[in-house]
Q: What sequence folds into this?
């Protein structure tokens, strides 16, 4: 279970056994033993591995298929599925995302984009405005010190 997860995640992140071994301060042979199931990493090494692969200890130790591991999102990141854009540009935010981020009918959302990655982000305007206030206050405080 853990061994297979380590192997699949190591390959997903395109790490050799040697590079992974260096990162967790063990030998390449130790990583090979973990992956083959001959040995198990201690809890400290498991935490290091989870951090390297940006997952939780629970995810590292779960019995998951290769497909599940391939689609595993890093800690704090979520994959809610694919949505279809309607004729007028509308999208439906998945229920799980609305619940997690407390998005309700009538909420105002800000849509941001980035040229290089062609990526979009959606966030609640109140969060963005609160962040903008913090930045503005910090700039004002720095100007007063000058």
A:
């Amino acid at each position: 279970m853990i061994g297979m997860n380590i192997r699949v995640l190591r390959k997903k992140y395109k790490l050799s056994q040697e590079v992974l071994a260096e990162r967790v301060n063990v030998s390449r042979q130790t990583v090979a033993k973990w992956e083959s199931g001959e040995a198990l990493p201690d809890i400290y090494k498991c935490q290091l591995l989870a951090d390297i692969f940006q997952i939780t200890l629970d995810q590292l130790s779960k019995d998951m298929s290769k497909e599940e591991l391939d689609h595993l999102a890093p800690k704090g990141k979520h994959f809610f599925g694919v949505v279809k854009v309607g004729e007028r540009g509308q999208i439906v935010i998945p229920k799980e995302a609305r619940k997690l981020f407390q998005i309700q009918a009538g909420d105002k959302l800000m849509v941001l984009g980035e040229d290089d990655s062609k990526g979009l982000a959606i966030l609640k305007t109140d969060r963005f405005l609160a962040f903008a206030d913090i930045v503005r206050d910090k700039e004002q405080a720095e100007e007063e010190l000058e």
